[in-house]
Write a structure and sequence with these properties.
Elements lengths: L1 E5 L8 E3 L8 E5 L16 E4 L10 E4 L2 E2 L4 E5 L19 E6 L1 H7 L5 E6 L5 H6 L3 H5 L1 E7 L9 H13 L2 E7 L4 E6 L8 E3 L3
Parallel strand pairs: 1-13, 3-4, 3-9, 4-5, 6-8, 9-10
Antiparallel strand pairs: 1-2, 7-8, 10-12, 11-12
């Protein structure tokens, strides 16, 4: 039975499943700017945030000031403007700041990650290429994924969202829409799910 909880009370987009929390697994917050989603876990579990534009690291967290993607390389990029091109990130611009991009495998090796309790993903349209870069062995170490797909901002992304959801299902996840308005989904490994029953808890 799903035991749905929120890292931010009253914010359905922050929904996760308590049952699939592995005692050895860490929390990976991909797109951790301001640490709003992952503050819940500080002092509870190991928390690793990834964001090129985050400037603070709370006590109890680790920060990779870069991006995750399909390659190990450097990328040139600018911070998305809230009023222009929101929901997309452009890499390798002529002007901007240079950041390190790591593949998921390299990231896990660098931070000595064997099991991930929750991978949260909010990376402004780059979620599609990131998910496509993962293979079966990568998904096997991730118990659940909390993700925002950005087709709500760019309708042209809808086929990419559909393809990504099918990819997640193919790799053993039950995919649940938690906040459709902003494209948030909860993806839980099938062994943790009884789709006939669920309950929502608040902490």
């Amino acid at each position: 039975m799903l035991k749905l909880c929120e890292t931010i009370e009253g914010q359905y987009w922050s929904t996760f499943d308590w049952n699939s929390i592995d005692s050895e697994g860490c929390i990976v917050d991909l797109g951790c700017l301001y640490w709003d989603w992952s503050k819940f876990w500080l002092g509870v579990k190991r928390v690793i945030g990834i964001d090129p534009f985050e400037t603070t690291t709370p006590i109890g967290a680790e920060l990779f000031n870069g991006v995750l993607g399909p390659l190990d390389c450097n990328v040139t990029m600018n911070k998305p403007n809230n009023n222009e091109n929101e929901g997309t990130i452009d890499y390798n611009l002529d002007n901007g700041d240079v950041f390190e991009m790591l593949s998921w495998k390299t990231f896990c090796e660098r931070y000595n990650i064997n099991t991930v309790s929750i991978l949260k993903i909010n990376i402004e349209g780059s979620e599609y290429s990131f998910l496509d870069s993962l293979d079966e062995s990568d998904f096997s170490k991730i118990n659940q994924i909390v993700i925002s797909f950005h087709d709500w901002l760019n309708p042209e992304f809808k086929p990419l969202t559909d393809s990504s959801i099918e990819l997640l299902k193919k790799n053993g996840y039950t995919v649940i829409s938690t906040y459709f308005k902003l494209g948030w989904y909860l993806c839980v490994k099938n062994e943790f799910v009884n789709t006939n029953h669920s309950e929502r808890w608040f902490f």
